[in-house]
Amino acid sequence: VWQNCGYYDVEIRSENAVHSLEHGAVWITYRPGLAEAQMRKLRGFTGGFEKVLVSPVAQQESPIIVTAWANQLHLTDAGDDRLAQFVAEFEGSLDSPEPGGSCSGGVGTPTA
Q1: How far separated are the first and last CA of the chain, in Å rounded?
Q2: Distances in Å between the alpha carbon of 29 and those of 51, 80, 92, 97, 103?
C-alpha cells in the first residue's frame, strides 16, 4: 500500500514511500535535528504539490535527500534552488511505473 502524501514528523516505512514513488510522488527526507527554518521550507512543498512526501530518516548520509523514481539529489540546505527544480520536474512524472496512481487513500496520516 502506498503512503499518503504530506508532511510527517516521524519516520515512515520505506516500502510504503517507494510505492508512492511508483505513483509519481517525490519523497523529501531530512535528518532529524534540521533547523526549524529549513523544516518550514520542506513543509511548504506539501502544500504546493499534490504528490510530495516529507519525512525524517535517522542517520541518512545528507541533511536532505530528495527522491523520485530513478532519480535522487543530496542537499545540505532546503533553500538550494535545485530542490524546487527537482520537485517541479519529477512530481507526477509519467516516467514512474504507475503514473497517475493516487497519493491519498493509502496508509499514514500526515501532520501537514
Answers
A1: 20
A2: 14, 15, 18, 21, 17
